[in-house]
């Protein structure tokens, strides 16, 4: 990641510092790992294509910077550190997020030395990711989430929020790896099914941790969903029911990998990790 990132040099160094601050703040890097694991499940070596997983982490980090802003979730702590706007100001944080999002697509569109990846495949990856993070994906999900605060929404709306706000980029991460690995239609469909289910499980567990976790464990504020009167899985199903829903999603994800051999074990392990995580 560091080798591909912009260097904080010259008159723009302050802006690039703000980008690097959040990008290097730690985190689980689930999305790039999913991309690499999906590609490797199909026998693809990622040595020459690290731009794709790095771009996914840049996009995810941009979304966190913007989510934390006072106009959004208004959080002061992320990954155990002050949020970007607490260090660089609101304008600096907005621009850092914008910079990371744009840089991600610069990475994705760079010519590659990997002769096994065609320009059409790279264009397909760019399209998959762009759709996942745009108005029909992550951005739209965030907009619907904000619009739903302080409202009594049906469960179907909550499911849409989760699928767009969190699930779409997780699914696209798996799909990108599948494209890099030259998946056939059957393999691509199976990996997409896996991605959708672990994306759902990830957000369900996030809902659960917001109720049961601690700020020390999570590196961010807890109880914020209840403070903003947001609809969550625990609100609909209770804590134990929510844990059961997360477990069911993980089992569906693992079942989707039934046609793959042991090369898919890292994906299976990631699904279990998502269910068992405490941060």
Task: Give an account of the 3D structure.
Helix content is 68%, strand content 1%. It is an all-alpha fold and 279 residues long. It has a single domain (10-276), classed as Farnesyl Diphosphate Synthase (Orthogonal Bundle), CATH 1.10.600.10. Helix 2 crosses helix 7 and helix 3 (51-67) runs antiparallel to helix 4.
Helix and strand sequence: HHHEEHHHHHHHHH
Number of helices: 12
Rg from Cα: 18 Å
Low-confidence stretches: none
Multimer state:
single chain
How many separate domains?
1
In percent terms, what proportion of residues is strand? under 5%
What would you call the shape?
Answer: globular
Helices and strands, with pairings:
Layout: H1 13-23, H2 30-41, H3 51-67, E1 77-78, E2 81-82, H4 84-108, H5 119-133, H6 138-148, H7 155-180, H8 185-212, H9 215-218, H10 224-227, H11 233-256, H12 265-276
Antiparallel strand pairs: 1-2
Short structural description:
With 279 residues, the chain is mainly α. The protein has helices at 13-23, 30-41, 51-67, 84-108, 119-133, 138-148, 155-180, 185-212, 215-218, 224-227, 233-256, 265-276, and strands at 77-78, 81-82.
Feature tags:
279 residues, mainly alpha, Farnesyl Diphosphate Synthase, two-stranded antiparallel ribbon, 2 strands, globular
């Amino acid at each position: 990641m560091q080798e591909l990132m912009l260097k904080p040099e010259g008159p723009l160094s302050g802006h690039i510092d703000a980008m690097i601050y959040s990008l290097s703040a730690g985190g689980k890097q689930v999305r790039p790992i999913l991309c690499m694991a999906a590609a490797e499940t199909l026998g693809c070596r990622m040595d020459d294509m690290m731009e794709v997983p790095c771009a996914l982490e840049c996009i995810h980090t941009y979304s966190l910077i913007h989510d934390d802003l006072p106009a959004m979730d208004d959080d002061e702590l992320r990954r155990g550190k002050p949020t970007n706007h607490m260090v660089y100001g609101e304008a600096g944080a907005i621009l850092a997020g914008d910079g990371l999002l744009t840089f991600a697509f610069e990475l994705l569109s760079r010519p590659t030395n990997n002769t096994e990846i065609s320009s059409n495949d790279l264009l397909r990856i760019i399209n998959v990711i762009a759709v996942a993070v745009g108005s029909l994906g992550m951005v739209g999900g965030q907009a619907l989430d904000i619009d739903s605060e302080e409202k009594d929404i049906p469960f179907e709306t909550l499911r849409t929020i989760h699928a767009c706000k969190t699930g779409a980029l997780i699914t696209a991460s798996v799909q990108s790896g599948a494209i890099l690995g030259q998946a056939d239609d059957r393999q691509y469909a199976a990996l997409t099914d896996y991605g959708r289910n672990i994306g759902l499980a990830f957000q369900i567990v996030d809902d659960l941790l917001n109720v049961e976790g601690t700020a020390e464990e999570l590196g961010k504020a807890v109880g914020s969903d209840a403070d903003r009167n947001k609809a969550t899985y625990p609100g609909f199903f209770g804590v134990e029911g929510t844990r059961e829903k997360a477990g069911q999603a993980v089992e569906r994800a693992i079942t989707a990998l039934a046609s793959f051999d042991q090369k898919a074990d890292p994906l299976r392990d990631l699904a279990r990790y998502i269910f068992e995580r405490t941060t």
